[in-house]
Batch of 2 targets.
Target 1
Amino acid sequence: MKLLITGLNGTVAPWVGREAEARGWDVVAWDRNAVDPANETAALAFLRAEAPDAIVHLAMGAESWAGQLAGFARLHGVHLVFVSTAMVFDASPDGPHRPGDPRTAKDDYGQYKIRCEDAVLTACPSATVARIGWQIAADAVGNNMLRHLDEQHARDGRIRASSAWRPACSFMSDTAAALCDLVQEGTGGPVHLDSNALDALTFDQLVQQLAKKFERDWVVEVTQDYVHDQRLVNESGGSMLPPLSAHLG
């Protein structure tokens, strides 16, 4: 299996790359310094030269890039997994959110991801759109919940955590394994990956449990300043990931 991954300098993609290599797959990175996705001719030449068996698209980039990857996947029988976000759903109407629910994002990032999803599924209806939540890892860079909480506490001397928010979130190792499973299974359409889908921890509960697991002496101020059941469930109401309790006890 030759797997092309975009975004390997980001947060989640390196975990996907390591998981794929552990499965014996050949991982190819898209280096945007060498191949500009905006140059459609060069991008297509790169795809043809590499001839991947599957693609996982995690990088930020123009909707046209996502659409081109999807068009290549459809034309060449390559399975594409596009990684989207829980942020395509606004807090109103509230969750938990299912794959077929209307996408209600009002912020720029959520609307951008909606446009990418549409570009992918228009060009390749059999592609997978995997929506994920906030990611957790002990040592990951980028948008990692643990790192964010450490930085917030160092800056403010406390962490404000809403008891009215049930976040979509998972450990990066579980997300990476699930994304590789989706590559193998060839599941099409939107799917949700959320380890909090069934545990339904509120953010203040999650912060306290993370503090215990990772031996942090955070001061936690419980608030109700963000109200949202952000959990991502699948149509059956279940989850494709191990629950948070598998890591947190």
Target 2
Amino acid sequence: MKKIFLLIALVLCGASTYAQQKRKLVWSDEFNYKGQPDPQKWDYEDGFVRNNEPQYYTTKRLENCRVENGALVIEARKEEFPNARYKSGSTNWAEKEQFAHYTSASLITKGKADWKYGRIEVRAKVASGAGAWPAIWMLGINRGAVKWPDCGEIDIMEYLGRDPSKVYGTVHYADSLGKYQHQGESPVVGAPADGFHIYALEWYPDKFEFYYDNLKYFVFDISKAQQKEGNIFQKNFYLLLNLALGHEGSWAGPFNDDLLPLKYYVDYVRVYQ
């Protein structure tokens, strides 16, 4: 009789809860405090970082990143902000503007914590509106020592405000010939921006499983990223949480200033192994 009850309980709880029961919580931030994110757990990206995105990532600035009411809030704003990397006459997109016109934040665990295998689980409410581009993702800790995509990239969640019924889970890597490859899925799940949802990665030595709440929507075979020097997805990765803005010609598409400020909420981050 006890076995029957246990089986019923496992079915009702779903794969997500069962995975948690089998593993130990090794790292978390429940955001049950107020002010700046815990400096023992989080660092920041700074400035104009990638993809010609218009937002300037600030550091330790409550207007863009703070913990309040039990959640992390990442806020994208329209405002003039000095570009610390400005160089007069530069043609580099990250250096040529003296002032940024939009600010946001990107939190990272690089240098603080990184993992190989396990379950990375984030409960979050995404920012909505065309051009909003919140994400939960991971990069190999050798990022910088090697070029992207040799470091590997795991996009646990990307949400495009222009496509409000979907979430995206994607893997980026270099194959055995050193050529860039990517694979992913983008299920229609309803309206992610309407509330908090769980975004999770189950990471095994041979595969990734991607979840939206209890929906397993994408499985990736890690052997596809095998190279002579090893497999990048069998090495340690760090976590990133960021709110980007799209622009004309970008994957996220353009955004309207009237949408700002945009707010991306994270209830918790938990890592099980």
